[in-house]
Write a structure and sequence with these properties.
Blueprint lengths: L5 E6 L20 H14 L4 E9 L14 E5 L2 E6 L16 H15 L5 E5 H15 L3 E4 L4 H10 L4 H8 L1 H14 L2 E4 L2 H7 L12 E3 L14 H4 L6 H15 L9 E6 L7 H9 L2 H6 L1 E6 L10 H16 L6 E2 L6 H14 L3 E4 L8 H8 L4 E4 L4 H8 L2 E4 L4 H12 L2 H18 L2 H15 L3 H10 L4 H7 L2 E5 L9 H13 L4 E6 L4 H10 L7 E4 L4 E4 L4 E2 L1 H7 L5 H8 L6 E2 L10 E4 L4 H13 L4 E6 L3 E6 L4 H11 L7 E5 L5 H4 L4 E4 L16 E3 L4 H11 L4
Helix pairs in contact: 2-3, 2-20, 2-23, 3-6, 5-6, 9-13, 10-12, 10-16, 14-17, 21-28
């Protein structure tokens, strides 16, 4: 990969994303955002100042969906790729179930970045879940973070409450509290927030606590491909330019629609959206069903996503589609209402708009609220007048294009009257049709979007020379350090790193001189506070990594950022209160002071007696409590999550930052260093080691140095050719 031009990483985690034949409307998560991010990535990739665009999404291996979604890398342009990262298992799951898997996604993205050997110039998150991922990565690499929300949680919660759902049900189904808390954090830290409309800023972001603290919003409407969404009259003016694919799609659609309609020659009213309660399909059908004038002059076609069997769909979608069928029966709309089961987005949807415009029909978006409304722009580009909700993005679209009527979509009679006024007045139809075609060309193109966005981004992205000078002047971020070095050295502090000052100074000097190739850290039983106290006392600089509290906490220098992924990993089956209760009856255990206790570490003093150690194991076994029990220095007993220890923390770091086993060295002196010394690394035991480590003498890849303290570490570095 060449390094001239910007390298951008875009994140859109949920939904089904692929480079061709988008399955828009297949479910609630495969909507307009999927199309938005795909077209944005392609448009960015066409620019000369962009070197590479990677669109990150989730890798899915599920027989219910296409194998396309299981390809780790999909090239969709010369400089554009879809990168799929696996998290949360193999199956395709709805977005609300992904929250607890985001740390896994972040960890695996670190591996990808290291393997690519190039740090992005920008992280851009789409929607709250991917926004969190992009934010955490941007923090790790000290890189600008851009956010596009598409929709916001506080606004959604208000709408759902208005619809009668309880707070508990909303939170249980949509994880709305987690989403809103994440959005607050995103707004606080984002360098730039891109919105599609002014309404989005005031009525959605304006609901957040962090809104007034930041001035980083920019309205940049999305665009469409005008080569695909061309005007309906091109069929008559330039028939030679119409492709066989277009003609075939038109024939297929006509055959499908004519199956439903008795009088297919009439104009038709078109709606195209996901089967979601908020899209208010029922309001449109009621408007049509209660207005005999509309039924007399026009048919109705509602394309509500893609479906096979309604009974197999999610509850929200099932309810919407069932209501559609019941309304068709209640208003006796047989022969007038078409509700096709599927459509091909790439070829049939543009033809659907043109077919409707040819019939002198109307496109309707009856949603209760519409954050933007990309289908309105598509329909307008093809020459269709529009009727749309007055809540959200359509306000800006109709203000820009003057191509339709805004309505209060909660009132079905308003929808009906707006449609009627356009259908019954040919001059108004022609005015709205022409205005839409011209307005979209002027206001809504991806080229214009990207030009504005890159102009804003250029102010955030330091020039390459300034960036190099900055990194020379100060230590680069931990993300750049750990993905930019190929060797890692981890050492215990007490009686290993610390113990003899001259050799320690020599070691620190060696690490500084080799900082381009060696990252280093400490692994200790101390808490973070006590670790920093020891390092301050002995004038030790903050290392790249601090593994504290016997491997239950990982921090990164220089700003001591905690690794949230590790915390989530070790929390599995960790039952701290049950462990304390089970051991409180053992009189030979004395709880350590508060500083020794951590959220994932329970610490006691205990005599050095194998029988007492066995009784601790017995007690924990009686309650079937899975945990790690470590005894060290003849007096310290630590109870940890079963997934935690110094060694397991190092294995996690090896995986996350893609360090090969032959490029990792650990050094220690006591029993609580044993599991890291016998791990999948090179091990060094310093000459002043405790008798507890005698049992691992003679093992492969473990070197017992004759030199003590830091001198032993230096000896190991030379032994394993790290220096």
């Amino acid at each position: 990969m060449k390094n001239s031009g910007y390298y951008l990483q875009l994140f859109s985690l949920h939904g089904l994303i692929r480079g061709r034949n988008l399955e828009l409307g297949r479910d609630a998560d495969t909507g307009g955002q999927v199309k938005y991010v795909l077209e944005l990535a392609k448009a960015l990739g066409e620019r000369d100042d962009i070197n590479q665009v990677d669109l990150f999404t989730r890798l899915i291996e599920d027989k219910r969906v296409s194998p396309d979604y299981s390809e780790p890398i999909e090239f969709i342009g010369e400089k554009v790729r879809i990168v799929r990262i696996k998290c949360g298992g193999k199956r395709y799951i709805r977005k609300e179930l992904l929250w607890r898997h985001l740390e896994e996604y972040i960890d695996k993205t670190f591996r990808f970045i290291k393997a690519e050997n190039r740090v992005p110039d920008l992280f851009h998150g789409h929607y709250a879940d991917a926004g969190y991922i992009a934010l955490e990565l941007a923090r790790a690499f000290d890189t600008p973070f851009i956010f596009t929300g598409h929709s916001m949680g506080r606004n959604k919660r208000l709408k759902l409450l208005e619809d009668g759902l309880s707070k508990n049900k909303i939170n249980k189904q949509y994880k709305i509290d987690t989403r809103i808390d994440t959005e607050e954090e995103i707004i606080e830290h984002a360098d730039l927030i891109i919105t599609s409309t002014r309404q989005e800023i005031q009525k959605q972001y304006g609901l957040y606590k962090e809104f007034n603290k930041k001035k980083q919003f920019k309205v940049i409407p999305p665009g469409i491909d005008l080569d695909i969404f061309f005007p309906y009259y091109e069929y008559h003016l330039n028939p030679e330019t119409i492709t066989p694919e277009n003609k075939q799609a038109r024939v297929t659609l006509q055959e499908e629609l004519h199956r439903f309609w008795i009088n297919p020659e009439k104009p038709f009213i078109l709606a195209l959206c996901r089967p979601d309660q908020r899209k208010n399909i029922s309001g449109l059908i009621e408007a049509y069903g209660r207005n005999k004038d509309l039924q007399t002059v026009a048919n109705l076609a509602v394309f509500a996503g893609i479906r096979q069997d309604i009974s197999d769909m999610e509850e929200n979608e099932k309810d919407v589609l069932t209501d559609m069928l019941l309304q068709m029966d209640y208003f006796d709309l047989y022969g007038k209402l078409a509700i096709p089961k599927k459509h091909n987005f790439a070829t049939e949807v543009p033809e659907l708009y043109r077919l409707c415009a040819d019939s002198k029909g109307v496109f309707v978006n009856p949603a209760l609220v519409e954050p933007f409304g990309i289908t309105l722009i598509e329909a307008a580009a093809c020459g269709l007048p529009i009727v749309a909700t007055n809540d959200g993005g359509p306000v800006d679209i109709i203000a820009n294009c003057e191509n339709g009527i805004l309505v209060d979509s909660r009132k079905y009679e308003n929808i009906a009257e707006a449609i009627r006024s356009i259908l019954f007045h040919p001059d108004l139809w022609e005015k709205y049709s022409n205005n839409g075609i011209n307005g979209v060309k002027f206001h809504y193109s991806w080229q214009a979007h990207c030009s504005t966005a890159i102009g804003k981004l250029a102010k955030l992205l330091p020039e390459k020379t300034k960036k190099i000078e900055m990194e020379k002047a100060q230590k680069p971020s931990f993300g750049k350090r750990l993905t930019g070095t190929n060797k890692l050295m981890i050492t215990d502090i007490d009686n290993t790193l610390i113990g003899e000052s001259e050799s320690m100074k020599e070691l620190l000097q060696i690490l500084e001189e080799n900082s381009d190739s060696i990252a280093w850290g400490v692994a200790t039983g101390r808490s973070l506070g006590l670790t920093l106290d020891a390092m301050t006392e002995h004038n030790i600089p903050i290392p790249d990594i601090l593994i504290c509290s016997v491997g239950t906490e990982i921090y990164y220098g220089p700003d001591l950022r905690m690794d949230k992924g590790w915390q989530q990993t070790i929390s599995h089956l960790w039952k701290a209160e049950e462990i304390k209760k089970s051991l409180e009856t053992l009189p030979f255990l004395t709880s350590q002071e508060a500083e020794g206790q951590r959220s994932h570490k329970i610490s006691y003093f205990m005599e050095d007696d194998p029988d007492l150690f066995a009784r601790v194991h017995q007690k924990l076994g009686e309650k079937r409590l899975r945990c790690e029990v470590i005894f060290s220095h003849g007096q310290f007993l630590d109870i940890l999550p079963y997934r935690a220890s110094k060694g397991k923390a190092i294995s996690y770091l090896q995986y996350k930052y893609n360090f090969q086993k032959e490029n990792v060295m650990v050094a220690g002196d006591s029993g609580n260093d044993e599991d890291m010394l016998v791990g999948n690394t090179y091990g060094v035991v310093v000459g002043n080691y405790s008798v507890e480590l005698e049992k691992i003498k003679g093992r492969k890849k473990i070197y017992f140095s004759s030199k003590e303290y830091s001198a032993g570490i230096i000896d190991g570095l030379r032994k394993y050719k790290f220096i």
